[in-house]
Amino acid sequence: MKRILLSRTDRVGDLILSTPAIATMRASFPAAHITIVCSGYNAVVMDHSPDVDAVAVVPSQVRPETYGARFRDIDLAIALAPNAADLKLVGATGAPVRIGYTYQRRYLTRLVARRWLTEVLVSAADPAMCDRRPDLIVQHEVDQVLALAKRAGARTIVPDLRVIITEDDRAAVADLPAGPIVVHLGKRWTERGSTTSSLLEILRDLRALGRPLVATYGGDGAALAAVVRTAGAADCVIGGLTFGAWAAAFERAACILTIDTGATHVASAVRRPTVVLFEHAYFRLNSQEWSPYRVPNAVLRKPADESPEALRASRAEIVAAVSALL
Fold first, then answer.
1. How far apart are CA 258 and CA 197, in angstroms?
2. Rounded to 5 degrees, what angle do the CA atoms 192, 196, 201 make?
3. Alpha helices, DSSP H, located in the chain
4. Which CATH fold would you assign to the domain 3-151?
5. What is the Cα–Cα distance from 161 to 22, expressed in whole angstroms?
6. Bridge partners of 257?
7. What is the rounded CA–CA span in Å between residue 161 and residue 127?
8. Is the CA virtual torsion 161, 322, 255, 304 positive or negative?
9. How far apart are CA 3 and CA 295, in angstroms?
């Protein structure tokens, strides 16, 4: 195996969940030249990665199949994401072996994927099936993606998530308190079974656990961060971090609390205990496929409504889960 192309152009968290498969490919084919194709959004996950030789970024205005056609000397191509963009990109390489996966009930995608790929794996992950069949066990996305590497012939399995944190990243957050509870802010804290005022109550209750409280945020959490900062509900509210510095901030934590977002997987990559509040809808699927990976954790469900009683019970559950992991 001389030249391998991997493709994952969707979200940051999903690329983090693909890092065991990427590391597995490197460990199994150490002499191969490995290129990973990313989007401009998620490529930060691969900064300083020792597991790839090149990172290629698809320009937003270029069609995936047009970009994939640039790689005509590839021996093996794997679509790490179960979406049409990555499947088409891998298909366009014309590599002798082209592997990808999709979901069981995406019948049209399964049909047309046969045109793009030489091998198509099928995942049982499906919201409707999980709701109808409580006995259905869905593999974690890490294991679904690792199955692609195994199908490609990988035999040296690397199971852990991997993000690279440099000393510069650590220096950028060196002023944060040591051993804090870190709460990652995002829009989902303000909707569908969670409210801004209830979050502020959670932060006040967490203070009683005797740890410093740090809130981090990205673009979709900026407005909420301003409210938290104004209320004085955290010891430190910090955003605008590079990806590496954000991971370094999580690395300092005693425990991380987040809604269902890429923060869950950054926390797992830096091996910190994690509490995740998943959406009420499709909880059975999401809490299996995207739960914290190989770290102590608590997986909680948002209440079905925002009544005072429901929010009070959710807050108590969250604080108890954080306390148990400290």
1. 16
2. 115
3. 12-28, 64-68, 84-92, 107-116, 127-132, 141-151, 167-172, 196-207, 222-231, 243-251, 263-269, 283-289, 308-325
4. Rossmann fold (3.40.50)
5. 10
6. 183, 275
7. 25
8. positive
9. 34
Q: Is the pTM of this model over 0.90?
A: yes
- Contacts of residue 236, defined as CB under 8 A and 6 or more positions apart, other chains included, come to 176, 177, 180, 212, 213, 214, 215
> 98 pairs with which residues across the strands?
77
b/e 191-223 (16+ beta carbons within 10 angstroms → b): eebbeeebbbbbbbbbeeeebbbbbbbbeebee
pLDDT, averaged in runs of 10, over the chain (326 residues): 94 98 98 98 97 97 96 96 95 97 81 90 81 82 97 97 98 97 98 97 97 97 98 97 98 98 98 98 92 98 97 98 98
Phi-psi sector, 32: left (phi>0), alpha (psi -120 to 50), beta: beta
- Alpha carbon distance 149, 77 (integer Å): 10
| CATH class held by domain 168-325 | alpha beta
Domain with CATH 3.40.50.2000 in the chain: 3-151, 168-325
Burial of 6 (0-12, 13-18, 19+ CB in 10 A): buried
Say if CB 315 and CB 203 are below 8 A apart. no
The residue written with tokens 């740090």 in the block is 214
